[in-house]
Amino acid sequence: MEALLRVSPVAIHLLDLDGTVRLWNPAAERLFGWRQDDVLGHRAPWATGARWETFLHHQEQAARGLAPSSLELELHRRDGTPVQVELWTAPMPSSTGPAQHLALLVDLTERRRDEAARQRLLDASDGLASSLDPDATLEHLVRLAVPAHAESCRVFREDVPGQPRRVASAGVEARSPATTEAAALPDGATVSPDEATVSRVIATGEPALHAGPPSWLCVPLARTGALVLSTSERAYTLRELALARELTRRASLALDNARLYHEARQALRARDEVLAIASHELKSPISALRLQVQSLRAALERAPEALLRERLHRGLDLVGRQVKRQAKLIDALLDVSRIHAGRLALTPEPVDLSALVREVAERLELEFAGTGAHLTLTLPTDAHGHWDRLRLDQVLTNLVSNAVKYGRGNPVEVALSSTDAQVRLDVRDAGIGIAPEHLPRLFHRFERAVSDRDYGGVGLGLWIVREVVEAMGGHVSASSSPGVGSTFTVVLPKTRG
Ligand code: ADP
């Protein structure tokens, strides 16, 4: 018992009910500054006035089972400085003398300081949500933990698996043990996890902790990131790991908000773009239609009997073409909203693709009769599969009409080839071609490599082609040389669609 009292890290007193000290162990000497000889036989010296009354009242209540056995209390040391303690008391039955209490006093100063720092950190992290710029959020995040919780704080992001990149940092430079021997660390530098560890944390979502010191901890951040805290002075504990996880949870929310805001803005911009293009594209054929109708009516009124069949034919042809153009554009715009809403439903059925290509080619040859473009078809007999016929017709129509439209009147080749598992379609023209810098964007919405003045169009056709082909489990690509011509290639699996 003697030994226990001596080595106990917790301050222990034995007190009479009136607070007279009967036992005062070395930990109590260290905590309060009074030596055992100073206090034995005297009233406990660490409280006066109201605090002393509180203490006595609690002793009495606890002895009668009316109060919990623990109490948090502010006492003072011999030098007058305050000390927060948690006081645990237990009545000690005594057969001889007066009743006594065993009191254990746990120093709460450290814990309080920790809690206050934790709270300060969490309060400050509220500011994470104030920015809708992801970079600003990360900058804020790394600065939060330094210097109170870390000498170095960094955020990594992994766009390529296995290759985390540092995207924000604060505090002193931290070195990975893989790149620098601990002994060779420059003054003030701390260690940190190697790339493989950061990568594993990102991949598994499980945090990692190197106790040290020097010490580091690494916690996942959003879906593809990690936060690393390093310190050379102390060992991180599970409490700090939990704190770091709370921080990254808050940062992830802020990053998510920023992403949603960004997406919403993009959607708005896309809508404005659609409206601008659609109103322009819808308006010009309408103006043409109105003029045409006005001129036909004027001709009729001026000399109905003299109105030549020929004139009427030409007028109606033009009206027909403009109406078709309108309908096509409206279909494309409807497709945009369907695809955007994820409602591009496919209805697969058995399709002979060679027959479908022939059908589309005949239709387009009629439509483009004036351009002089000649279509050459290379069609196998076994290009059968399960696909959505109408959507496939749309893909072929878009690619072949582009080849004619941008083909400068040169011949267009459509070649189909088939294996057991897939079909491949090449639509080749010898037209204006596409500059290499435009190629990667052409399958995006509203992207065009030509000016409105030279060629009408809204830049939706190839986007729709890609969406349809990918929904069918296939792939579309383009290769081109400016001034020489372009080839668009679609590869489709036979079983899906
Ligand atoms: P649109 O033809 O209505 O502009 P598309 O999405 O079909 O829209 O095509 C996007 C752009 O790709 C076109 O504006 C044009 O610049 C380019 N393009 C498409 N097909 C060809 C082709 N066969 N040859 C040259 N450029 C092409």
Describe the structure.
This protein is of the alpha+beta class and 497 residues long. The chain has four domains: 2-107, Beta-Lactamase, CATH 3.30.450; 113-263, Beta-Lactamase (2-Layer Sandwich), CATH 3.30.450.40; 269-340, Helix Hairpins (Orthogonal Bundle), CATH 1.10.287.130; 348-493, Histidine kinase-like ATPase, C-terminal domain (Heat Shock Protein 90). Helix content is 42%, strand content 23%. Strand 10 (208-210) and strand 11 form a beta hairpin. Helix 5 (109-125) runs parallel beside helix 8 (238-302), helix 6 runs antiparallel to helix 8 and helix 11 runs antiparallel to helix 12 (461-471). The longest helix has 65 residues, at 238-302. The site of adenosine-5'-diphosphate has 21 residues, from helix 11 and helix 12. InterPro entries: GAF-like_dom_sf (IPR029016), HATPase_C_sf (IPR036890), HATPase_dom (IPR003594), His_kinase_dom (IPR005467), HisK_dim/P_dom (IPR003661), HisK_dim/P_sf (IPR036097), PAS (IPR000014), PAS-assoc_C (IPR000700).
From the 3D structure, determine the CATH topology of the largest domain.
Beta-Lactamase
Mean pLDDT, as a whole number? 83
Q: State the helicity in percent bands.
A: 40-55%
- Termini Cα gap: 82 Å
Number of strands: 19
Secondary structure elements and pairings:
Elements: H1 2-7, E1 11-16, E2 21-24, H2 26-32, H3 36-39, H4 49-63, E3 70-76, E4 82-92, E5 100-107, H5 109-125, H6 134-145, E6 152-157, E7 165-171, E8 174-175, E9 190-191, H7 195-204, E10 208-210, E11 215-221, E12 225-231, H8 238-302, H9 309-340, E13 348-352, H10 353-367, E14 375-378, E15 384-388, H11 389-405, E16 412-418, E17 422-429, H12 461-471, E18 475-481, E19 485-493
Parallel strand pairs: 8-9, 14-16
Antiparallel strand pairs: 1-2, 1-5, 3-4, 4-5, 6-7, 6-12, 10-11, 11-12, 13-15, 16-17, 17-19, 18-19
Helix pairs in contact: 5-8, 6-8, 8-9, 10-11, 11-12
Bound molecules: adenosine-5'-diphosphate (ADP).
